[in-house]
Design a protein that fits this description.
Length: 313
């Protein structure tokens, strides 16, 4: 049996294990949430985001269902509402600061705060073997800066409680700093991004700015950047790094004001973003994000998960 066949077999075995785990209900001592626990899911109108919202609502939470396109989002939310689930729609464009501000004001006025934030909204313009960086600026602005700005806006609204609050960033293995595939060629930069001592928001932002400068002057191919899904990979690398950075910041918060933040890779999911070429269903792709959102253990923070397993950044 070749390596690809073995990997496929392992993947299928793990999928079966997770399918079984999903059938096991949470016990009373595991359920730290109630029907008043409020979860925000960005980009929830389709694919993985829709399934994350769906599964959280099935667990009895109040889910704030958001999307950039209001008409499409309202129709998608209505599907869950008609199933008797506690889902409320609100328009949100994570790239627009005014939209984030309006959303934050609405949350504060209507709910007073939130308990869970799932940053799922994202874009990707490369499919299959294509690797255009034509939309690199939009990809970085949405996937990294949009996610970062949502986190900053929601931090003051995260409810203080003994159970803690949770942030889950939907990311990708393609954004691993030292992954075997798609890693940055600049060894010194990789080391800085890996080292908690040197990691900073300024370093992450500068890395993205340097890449975009290379896109503008068409020198990016010689810059040591990933050569496959380049802009998408770098946007997710930034999300992963920012997750680690914020975990350190949140660690210093006093008891009762804790926020756990983690990121996860949903896998190669059959959605519009992959042109329906994935090997994992949206239901399976949503599982790890939902699991992290509901995880009772508050010590789990600043980590990267795939298929409910902790993997290296």
């Amino acid at each position: 049996m070749g390596n690809k066949e073995k990997a496929r077999e392992r993947r299928e075995k793990r999928r079966q294990e997770i399918s079984l785990l999903r059938t096991i209900p949470y016990s009373d001592h595991q359920r730290w949430w109630t029907s008043n626990t409020t979860a925000v899911v960005t980009g929830a109108n389709r694919g993985i985001g829709f399934e994350i919202a769906h599964q959280l609502a099935l667990h009895g939470l109040t889910v704030i269902f958001t999307s950039r396109d209001e008409g499409v989002g309202e129709e998608a939310a209505k599907v869950l509402q008609e199933r008797g689930l506690n889902v409320v729609y609100c328009q949100l464009d994570i790239v627009d600061p005014l939209s984030i501000e309006a959303f934050s004001t609405w949350i504060k006025e209507v709910y007073g705060g939130i308990d869970i934030l799932v940053n799922n909204a994202g874009v990707n313009f490369n499919v299959g073997p294509d690797n255009s960086v034509e939309y690199a600026e939009k990809v970085i602005a949405t996937n990294y800066y949009g996610t970062k700005n949502m986190i900053k806006a929601m931090i003051p609204l995260m409810r203080a409680s003994s159970s803690g609050a949770r942030i889950v960033n939907v990311s990708s293995r393609l954004g691993r700093v030292n992954g075997r595939r798609n890693r940055i060629g600049d060894i010194d930069l990789r080391r800085k991004l890996e080292d908690d001592g040197s990691l900073s928001e300024e370093l992450i932002d500068q890395t993205m700015a340097t890449f975009l400068e290379g896109v503008k002057d068409e020198s990016w191919k010689e810059g040591g950047w990933p050569q496959v899904y380049t802009d998408y990979s770098l946007s997710k690398l930034a999300v992963n790094a920012y997750t680690r950075l914020m975990a350190r910041v949140f660690m210093e918060r006093p008891e009762g004001q804790k926020i756990c933040i983690n990121c996860c890779c949903p896998g190669w999911v059959k959605t519009a973003m992959t042109d329906w070429a994935g090997h994992t269903s949206p239901e399976e792709g949503a599982d790890t994000a939902v699991w992290l959102a509901l995880l009772q253990d508050q010590t789990v923070s600043g980590r990267f998960f795939a298929e409910r397993r902790d993997i290296n950044f």
